[in-house]
């Protein structure tokens, strides 16, 4: 009985650990989340996806797509290097913008490099260059 | 020999200090919110939340002329730009769908205009149209439908076909054209999507970046949005306040449109100005002067004329 209980507890511990890991985004995924949230204009969520230093800028970022409906298709981000404490991320995708019933217009994402940093054990958006 | 060189360098620095210490940018008086420093490149960054609503609300828009006069500050910004290599024969358009619009200035670049009684404006047109660049017809990276005042400061909006990595649409346009003048108008989308503090912050940021680039901002009040009458007035007061504080030219379009049918707005789409039935928005003859776009085009030409006259004075 005791043996079964310890196996059960071990399994429970392993599954909890695995699920916790699964919830953590990688550095590129954290930037993907940030960009997708940004074009939706969700300021509070954007701040939660940012490092502390970048939170104020995140609130400003949220305003820029407020006047349009936008999404990013085929968004993929990848790590391209390190710079001091930051992980450098570049992204590809197509920005699709629709404004007041006009035909949607599309453009590729610009070659901006994003800075990701691990803060409180989670990857956060922390700047761009 | 070394002492002579050191003396000359010292003299030059002192001379430069004297010039800057007496510059109009420092002696500017209207409004106390802007902490001017002697050189445009050292203008302080705007701060979100430093909005002076009381000062804005006190502004009487009807007292601003339709066509601005050009201050010493404006002239200094322009001259600073020329020393940086800006093109005296180039201007850029910055704004939303009111500006990125086939009816705004483009017909002039395409030679589809009639100056009528305003034939004295012909040299302005030829000055800004040459083989290399047609400022009237050029598609600006810093103007697009759906832009608000925040958008052109965001690199995610920059089109990589024309813009370099990391550039914002505003930086992209400035690099591509090196303009001496920027026509700036926001407000139409902003009254709906940005709050007062955001609008004030982003518009100031645009003006500061423009001045730092050595480009003279020519601001404009924007057309009335009938859905937001009070905010239209307040945001236009903010535009006027910012132009006053930075001592840069302001076209008072809002006032000019106030006497037109439907205040110069397309009744079926209030985010656009009205056009004459013929569509001839750059034919400055009586029957067309009741349309918003015609009036905006004429005021813009007249303001460019005033700027050219001011900066070309000895």
- The H-and-E topology of chain B, N to C, reads as HHHHEHHHEHHEHEHEEH
Number of domains of chain B: 1
Number of strands of chain B: 6
> Strand content of the residues of chain A, in percent?
35-45%
CATH topology title of chain A: Nuclear Transport Factor 2, Chain: A
Tell me the strand percentage band of chain B: 5-15%
Number of discrete domains of chain A: 1
- Most strands sheet of chain B: 4 strands, parallel
Rg value of chain B: 20 Å
Please work out how many helical segments of chain A DSSP would assign.
4
The number of strands of chain A is 5
Low-confidence stretches of chain A: 18-22
Helix content of chain B: 40-55%
Radius of gyration of chain A: 19 Å
- In helices, the fraction of residues of chain A equals 25-40%
Task: Briefly note the CATH topology name of chain B.
Answer: Rossmann fold
Based on Cα principal axes, name the global outline of chain A.
globular
Largest sheet of chain A: 5 strands, antiparallel
What is the global morphology of chain B?
globular
Assigned CATH class of chain B: Alpha Beta
Structural class of chain A: alpha+beta
Strand and helix map with partners:
The complex is a heterodimer of chains A (129) and B (314).
Chain A: H1 2-23, H2 27-40, H3 43-48, H4 55-61, E1 69-83, E2 86-98, E3 105-108, E4 113-119, E5 122-128
Antiparallel strand pairs in A: 1-2, 2-3, 2-4, 4-5
Chain B: H1 2-21, H2 24-27, H3 53-57, H4 72-83, E1 87-95, H5 106-109, H6 122-128, H7 169-177, E2 179-185, H8 190-193, H9 196-212, E3 216-220, H10 229-246, E4 250-251, H11 253-257, E5 265-266, E6 269-273, H12 292-312
Parallel strand pairs in B: 1-2, 2-3, 3-4
Antiparallel strand pairs in B: 5-6
Helix pairs in contact in B: 9-10
């Amino acid at each position: 009985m005791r043996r079964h209980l310890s196996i059960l507890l071990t399994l429970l511990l392993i599954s909890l650990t695995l699920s916790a890991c699964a919830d953590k985004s990688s550095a590129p995924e954290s930037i993907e989340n940030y960009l997708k949230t940004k074009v939706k204009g969700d300021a509070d969520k954007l701040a939660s996806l940012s490092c502390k230093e970048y939170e104020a800028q995140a609130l400003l970022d949220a305003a820029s797509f407020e006047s349009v409906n936008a999404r990013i298709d085929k968004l993929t981000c990848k790590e391209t290097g390190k710079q001091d404490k930051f992980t450098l991320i570049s992204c590809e995708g197509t920005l699709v913008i629709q404004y007041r019933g006009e035909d949607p217009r599309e453009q590729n994402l610009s070659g901006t490099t994003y800075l990701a940093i691990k803060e409180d054990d989670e990857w956060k958006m922390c700047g761009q260059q | 020999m070394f002492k002579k060189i050191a003396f000359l360098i010292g003299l030059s620095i002192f001379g430069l200090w004297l010039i800057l210490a007496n510059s109009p940018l420092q002696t500017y008086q209207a409004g106390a919110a802007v902490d001017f420093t002697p050189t445009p490149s050292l203008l302080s960054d705007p701060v979100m939340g430093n909005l002076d609503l009381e000062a804005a609300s006190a502004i009487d828009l009807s007292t601003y002329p339709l066509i601005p006069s050009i201050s010493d500050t404006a002239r200094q910004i322009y001259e600073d730009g020329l020393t940086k290599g800006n093109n005296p024969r180039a201007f850029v358009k910055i704004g939303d769908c009111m500006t990125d619009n086939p009816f705004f200035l483009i017909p002039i670049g395409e030679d589809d205009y009639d100056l009528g009684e305003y034939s004295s404006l012909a040299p302005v047109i030829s000055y800004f149209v040459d083989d290399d660049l047609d400022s009237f017809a050029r598609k600006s990276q810093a103007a697009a439908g759906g832009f608000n005042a925040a958008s052109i400061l965001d690199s995610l909006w920059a089109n990589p076909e024309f813009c370099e990595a990391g550039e914002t649409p505003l930086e992209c346009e400035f690099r591509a054209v090196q303009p001496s003048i920027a026509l700036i108008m926001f407000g139409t989308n902003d009254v709906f999507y940005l709050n007062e503090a955001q609008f004030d912050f982003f518009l100031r940021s645009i003006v500061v970046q423009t001045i730092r680039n050595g480009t003279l901002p020519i601001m404009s009040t924007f057309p009335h949005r009938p859905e937001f009458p009070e905010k239209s007035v307040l945001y236009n007061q903010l535009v006027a306040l910012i132009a006053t504080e930075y001592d840069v030219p302001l076209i008072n379009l809002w006032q000019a449109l106030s006497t037109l049918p439907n205040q110069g707005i397309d009744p079926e789409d209030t985010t656009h100005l009205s056009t004459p039935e013929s569509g001839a928005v750059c034919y400055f003859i009586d029957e067309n002067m009741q349309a918003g776009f015609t009036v905006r085009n004429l005021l813009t030409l007249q303001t460019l004329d005033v700027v050219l006259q001011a900066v070309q004075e000895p």
